[in-house]
Amino acid sequence: PGSPLTGGCGFLLLRTWHAMAFSRWRVNHRRSGYVVTAENFQLARQPSTVSDGPSVESGKRVLVVGHGPIGHSFIEKLGERDAGFEISVLCEEPRPAYNRVMLTQYFVDRDGDKHDQMKLSYCTETSLKDTGVNLIYGRAVAVDRATKLVSYTEPSGSSNSVGYDLLVFATGSYCFVPPTPGMVISEKKNPHWPDDPTSRPQGVFVYRTIEDLDGMIAASKGGARKAAVIGGGLLGLEAAKAVYDLKMESHVLEMAPFLMPAQLNKAAGTLLAKKIQALDIRVHIGVKILEVVLSGEKVVGIKIIENGEEEPTILEVDMVVVSAGIRPRDELAKGCGLELGGRGGIKVDSGLRTADPSIYAIGECASIGGNFAYGLWAPGVEQAEVVVNNFVDGPGSAEYSSSDLSTKLKLLGVDVASFGSHNDFFFKRWFDDKDPEVISLECSNPLTGSYRKLCFNADGTKLMGGLLVGDAKDYTKLLQLSKKDDLGDLDPESLTYQRPPPGDGGAAPVDGGDGTGLADDDLVCTCIGLSKADVVKAITEKEATTVPLLKKANKVGTGCGGCVTPVGAVPK
Question: If you average pLDDT over residues 146-152, what whole number do you get?
Answer without folding.
Answer: 98
